[in-house]
């Protein structure tokens, strides 16, 4: 441990991009100044982390850590004491008003998304159907393929050129954000724009993708945009939202946004709250639960009134289906012991399929990231290739299926005439239908509805189900990762429902359960096997299908499939977070951390300031390091012995430097600074928009002047003793949402701070890189 | 601040019973020893807390704090390093096995409870009905009153003589336990016994009480009993559960138990999980969510199969009603703008009624506590009085109602013939029914079912609804607090449903919504107004009534009523927790805490040990203080300067003292101790069952010997610097579930520890008692 005791530095995640793999000893030596103490620079190149990032390639922009701690500096305290009741009321009111706005906007966007998809995809399918029923097969193919590839290219181009961050599901990024990692431009207005329109166009293009992941991301973007008071870039700002310009309030808003997204996508308000709680958010408190609940209630009301409005046919092809997307409540949910055995079997196999899905998605993503890295044109080419493949499957495979005689005593027409419908005619003559076409040549939503449909045991042949399952399972895997907004829920539900129906057909002789309900259980098993959620999936499925009586079986299936899949790998979102190199902090401490202490992982050099510091030193430290937090040490004559005053943030330093409130002598000018500034001046702007050191110029004379750091120093940073178990330090760090944690020495007579721990220092790659021998104990 | 810097002591909640109000300076002076340092004893009598306790009177037994921190001492670390995979597997397996057992047992108990109530109350009502239809009114009254008072007396006697802790709902106590406060014998086997049988008898006795609160408590008791490996007192123990003998694992089990209780009471598995999450638990992590979910799934399966079994009439009068207790899904949930306005009105008034309910319950509880304090006979007398009043109301008031003509075209018979039924004949002649008797002379469950019944707009007259509402609202308030197990859910749902139906009748002309659905919304508004939950109530109501389409309105009503009620007072469970004097830690820090620092609230004197301490000093400290944690200071020659080694617990000290592993010289014998003990020796037994100092006798010679405390010293206690904001310290304390928090000095050259903060030190009563002037800033 001796070797580390003195090796200390204030590192943060964001300097990874600059430091990794480079020999950075040069610049450090220059700042060996009396005020900035450096001992034994013990820089370790983070090869593990570097290779981790190399995998995903595109993501070399700096990742920023977020700070959920309240910065209790003197400025804050002064403001706190003088805060009036009306201000507190204003703050609370705005918080609720924002939640309302987030709910309204997300509800509207979700509805707009629905209308867009239903109409674009609907007219495409109608046109194709019409040509098919006229036996103009080749023309139908051209129309269908043309629409698919054209729309796919638009979605790809939007993503590739305007907002690469909009590709994919977005849930992993939102999850990482709520854990405290801000990936570059993940919540930018351009991302929002592309996410909304890219998702509509992409889903309409017939890709095996969903709109739920994108809706979660959209909700988060909307929340961020509203919380920021609009976008400064597009000259849309409200200044009265200044109180929300901090990571803490922003996190709360984005949690609400994510919940609103799920609520809008699945028309499942309670499921949305639970999704945000179980999967997305890392921190939670009951006040937030309530506000999230409010937001999703607003979404539900918006959706309900708009659907009511559309039910009279005012929204084009959109209109069918109320708040329940796939209603199965008409089926009788009676089951016996034999059914439970069948369901156990279904759960186990579903879990295995789910974990294989995760495994393959991970592999495909790694390959795609190499292709996507090569440039926008490669991205679009990949999108077009997948689009061609999807089109070929969905138009080609139905030809394999033999025509089936339409069942008698049907309420709906057979073959179906509209753009959706259970009984697609395809190439079959009148009175016959092609069951495979009913699945392939429909929107994903309609295909799921067909699979969930009850009292239609023999509608789909076993061979057709096998073909559809294989195609959708593979297409789902190869589609995620291309440069379009792509949700994972729908592909998984689609594959799972087909699998469930297949199992239902196989157990037909022993089980009384409806095949539609088997499809629902199959979807549950796949969702459990890939997403690994429990309560939220359960409620979402309940809200999707309105079958409460099946709840015990759904719970059972989710538990089994999750348990089975957990034996093999992690949930799909966790995998993607890891693949993207986002430093996600787990809620629990790893076992090996109990064998290390905090002092073991701090690495040098540490840059500290004195309470009244020379401007030149500060500028130099800011220029030469990427650190975001600097310990402030009070030294004689301002204290008897050197003692830790607190922690000062880079962003706060920049504001103070820009104001140039310097003094010639080394005196404490804190009082004047307190008069001149208010906490609003130090509000944190949106990501990547803060003050930069390059924007400020300094005279030589100014560099020799002094600045009093006390007013902006957080005098209550969370500290741990260097001999504190690393596991306990990690739990403290994670539970309180810290960005910096000060490590203080155990024995007296040493400098008052040993180092600073950041998120990065707790990452397994870092810890196990330092102590490879400990790995075996894991 | 200077005055507090040196005022420090290691206090804990449990010594309140001993110290409060007494002049305790005497004993302290005796332990002024070279090893036990005391500076400036600054004892403040805690008058605030004392008066707080005096209110509830009966509760003078010591309350114990719980410790959710992992005690990382050398013993633990040694065990951790040598832990084999098979042991970890065993631990995980047992954890799940226990969850399964908790689910099974709670499901069975819940079912048993149902059968008991339905049969006892059912036969009582059948008998009364038969006599009524024979026009033997007085005999019917005697039978009815006799049954009620007899059963009531049994329930009261069980509570008063066997387990006083079983009285009331139990949810506040479980909530406090999960927050870290162990009230005396709250989870004891005798409490469990009385809770189960007392609840059956009490509900059957016709009291306006529910069985859900008691079921939550029952679930928690079962979980505690199973986790403890049975009861030592009754010679039922399994030794292989030793790994679970700590507060942390026990807390997780009890969370599962509480969830299972709700799941069993309402047949609402998802609602149970959410109740545990939103209302009961203070700490939560996703692994626990999953295990809770598993437990409630087991409950759901158990209930479903048993209900299936009973549906063929094998369980006496129990049998009707499947998993959905009050099914309203047959009603069409169509609503327009006018309905939403009506619902808004309903929500606001419901919230006001809810908060008045809380206010009155609080007042009544304060009066009752004075009566109950006087002895068991007074308790029983109070029970009998309330029983007489309830009987008088339920048998007397229906006479006011005029007989109504039976509606034509009914499926069921009118007047009803069974023990339940919508149309009670009471005094009316054939072809007529008494609507008030249909509500009063039924079990509470059946009354709610009648109120929720749809397509029966005119079944209940407005006047009858008003009478029933007034009676039930008042009876609910005066019944809670008497010495029987009494849930609050059912009285609130009953009053709320009546209120909702009343509003429905009033808005009949403008609203299309079914009065049954209005009753549901009324129940939601009352629940929101008293309990102040959101998501969990929403899901519980959904699972109770199976009407997903009404979800947006239910959400709206809950939000409104909670918002309105929050303007007036706190939730009913929080009120009771406060009334009982349980030191509950809120999740957020109070505003005034930001103006204080940790050093401001530590109070003296501090008792510390050296790493190798004299036995006599330890015994003396244990005898003369009630502290449960003592800082251990390493002093020269074992370290260069005095430094904080860690924290040692009273219970661990006692184990070491009992083993008498002493040495004549002041040497470190840690290695030998490590060999001799395993962490299991230090496992925490059930509450109130640990080793006591009186059980150990010491020779004079032994008192002069030394003992090495290092192996049992937690070397990683969470510490805060004395200048840390009190708000931040409180958040750290609460978020990590601590029992002791060390306060260390900021400047060097002082003793290495300033004091210890415990739960008690963060209580508003304590802080505001020390700094009354700060109150205004609140």
Short structural description:
The structure is a homodimer of 778-residue chains. With 778 residues, chain A is mostly helical.
3D structure, described in words:
- Chains A, B: Keywords: CBS domain, Chloride, Chloride channel, Ion channel, Ion transport, Membrane, Repeat, Transmembrane, Transmembrane helix, Transport, Voltage-gated channel.
- With 778 residues, the first copy, chain A, is mainly alpha-helical.
- In chain A, 54% of the residues lie in helices and 5% in strands.
- In chain A, the strands form 5 sheets. Chain A has a 3-stranded mixed β-sheet with strand order 5-7-8.
- Chain A is elongated, with a radius of gyration of 29 Å.
- The two termini of chain A are 20 Å apart.
- In chain A, 59% of the residues are buried.
- Chains A and B meet through helix 5, helix 12, helix 13, helix 21 and helix 22 of A and helix 5, helix 12, helix 13, helix 21 and helix 22 of B.
Topology (SSEs and partners):
Two copies of one chain form a homodimer.
Chain A: H1 2-5, H2 16-19, H3 25-30, H4 47-56, E1 64-65, H5 74-81, H6 85-133, H7 137-162, H8 171-179, E2 181-182, H9 189-204, H10 212-227, H11 247-266, H12 269-280, H13 286-310, H14 337-373, H15 376-396, E3 404-405, E4 432-433, H16 435-440, H17 444-452, H18 462-479, H19 489-506, H20 515-531, H21 535-545, H22 551-566, H23 572-579, H24 598-601, E5 609-610, E6 612-614, H25 615-624, E7 629-634, E8 643-649, H26 650-659, H27 670-676, H28 700-703, E9 706-708, E10 719-721, H29 726-736, E11 740-744, E12 755-758, H30 764-770
Helix pairs in contact in A: 6-7, 6-9, 6-10, 6-11, 6-13, 7-9, 7-15, 8-23, 9-10, 10-11, 11-12, 11-13, 12-13, 12-21, 14-15, 14-19, 14-20, 14-22, 14-23, 15-18, 17-19, 18-19, 19-20, 20-21, 20-22, 21-22
């Amino acid at each position: 441990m001796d070797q580390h005791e003195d090796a200390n530095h204030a590192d943060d995640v964001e300097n990874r991009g600059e430091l990794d793999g480079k020999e950075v000893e040069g610049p450090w030596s220059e700042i060996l100044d009396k005020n900035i103490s450096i001992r034994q620079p013990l820089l370790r190149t983070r090869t593990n982390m570097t290779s981790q990032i190399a995998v995903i390639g595109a993501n070399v922009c700096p990742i920023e850590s977020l700070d959920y701690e309240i910065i209790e500096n003197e400025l804050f305290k002064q403001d706190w004491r003088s805060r009036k009741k009306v201000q507190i009321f204003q703050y609370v009111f705005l918080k609720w008003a924002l939640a309302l706005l987030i709910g309204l906007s997300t509800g509207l966007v979700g509805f707009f998304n629905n209308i867009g998809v239903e109409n674009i995809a609907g007219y495409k399918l109608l046109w194709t159907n019409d040509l098919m029923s006229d036996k103009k097969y080749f023309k139908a193919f051209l129309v269908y393929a043309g629409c698919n590839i054209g729309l796919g290219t638009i979605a790809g181009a939007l993503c590739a050129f305007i907002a690469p961050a909009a590709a994919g599901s977005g849930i992993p990024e939102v999850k990482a954000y709520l854990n405290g990692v801000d990936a570059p431009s993940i919540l930018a207005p351009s991302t929002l724009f592309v996410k909304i329109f890219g998702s509509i166009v992409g889903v309409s293009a017939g890709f095996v993708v969903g709109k739920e992941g994108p809706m979660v991301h959209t909700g988060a973007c909307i929340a961020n945009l509203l919380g920021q008071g609009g976008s400064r870039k597009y000259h849309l700002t409200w200044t009265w939202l200044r109180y929300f310009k901090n990571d803490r309030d922003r996190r709360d808003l984005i949690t609400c946004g994510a919940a609103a997204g799920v609520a809008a996508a699945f028309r499942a308000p309670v499921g949305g709250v639970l999704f945000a709680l179980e999967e997305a958010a890392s921190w939670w408190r009951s006040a937030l639960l309530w506000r999230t609940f409010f937001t999703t209630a607003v979404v539900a009301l918006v959706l309900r009134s708009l659907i009511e409005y559309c039910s009279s046919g005012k929204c084009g092809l959109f209109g069918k289906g109320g708040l329940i997307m796939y209603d199965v409540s008409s089926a009788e949910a009676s089951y016996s012991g034999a059914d439970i055995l069948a369901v156990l079997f279904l759960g186990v196999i579903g879990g295995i399929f789910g974990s294989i899905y995760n495994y393959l998605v991970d592999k495909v993503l790694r390959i795609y990231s190499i292709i996507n890295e090569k440039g926008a044109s490669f991205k679009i080419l990949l999108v077009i290739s997948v689009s061609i493949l999807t089109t070929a499957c969905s138009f080609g495979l139905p030809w394999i299926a033999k025509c089936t005689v339409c069942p008698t005593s049907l309420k709906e027409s057979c073959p179906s005439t509209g753009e959706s419908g259970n009984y697609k005619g395809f190439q079959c003559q009148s009175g016959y239908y092609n069951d495979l076409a009913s699945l392939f040549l429909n929107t994903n939503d309609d295909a799921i509805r067909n699979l969930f449909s009850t009292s239609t045991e023999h509608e789909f042949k076993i061979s057709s189900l096998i073909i559809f399952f294989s195609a959708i399972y593979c297409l789902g895997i190869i589609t995620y990762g291309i440069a379009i907004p792509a949700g994972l829920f729908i592909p998984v539900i689609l594959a799972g429902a087909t699998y469930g129906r297949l199992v239902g057909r196989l157990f037909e002789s022993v089980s009384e359960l409806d095949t539609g309900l088997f499809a629902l259980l199959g979807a549950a098993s796949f969702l459990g096997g890939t997403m690994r959620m429990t309560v939220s999936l359960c409620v979402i499925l309940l809200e999707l299908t309105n079958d409460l009586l099946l709840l015990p079986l759904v719970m059972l299936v989710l538990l089994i499939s999750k348990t089975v899949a957990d034996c093999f790998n992690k949930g799909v979102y966790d995998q993607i977070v890891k693949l993207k190199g986002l430093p996600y902090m787990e809620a629990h401490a790893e076992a090996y951390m109990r064998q290390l202490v905090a002092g073991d992982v701090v690495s040098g050099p540490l840059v500290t300031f004195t309470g009244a510091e020379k401007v030149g030193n500060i500028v130099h430290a800011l220029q030469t390091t990427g650190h975001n937090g600097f310990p402030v040490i009070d030294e004689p004559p301002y204290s008897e012995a050197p003692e830790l005053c607190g922690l000062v943030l880079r962003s706060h330093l920049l504001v103070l430097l820009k104001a140039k409130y310097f003094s010639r002598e080394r005196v404490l000018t804190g009082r004047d600074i307190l008069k001149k500034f208010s906490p609003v001046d130090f509000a944190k702007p949106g990501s990547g928009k803060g003050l930069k050191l390059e924007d400020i110029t300094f005279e030589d004379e100014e560099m020799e002047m002094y600045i009093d750091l006390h007013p902006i120093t957080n005098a209550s940073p969370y500290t741990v003793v260097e001999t504190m178990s690393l596991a306990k330090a990690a739990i403290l760090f994670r539970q309180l949402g810290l960005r910096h944690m000060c490590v203080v020495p155990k024995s007296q007579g040493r400098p008052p701070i040993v180092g600073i721990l950041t998120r990065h220092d707790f990452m397994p790659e870092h810890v196990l890189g330092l102590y490879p021998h400990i790995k075996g104990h894991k």
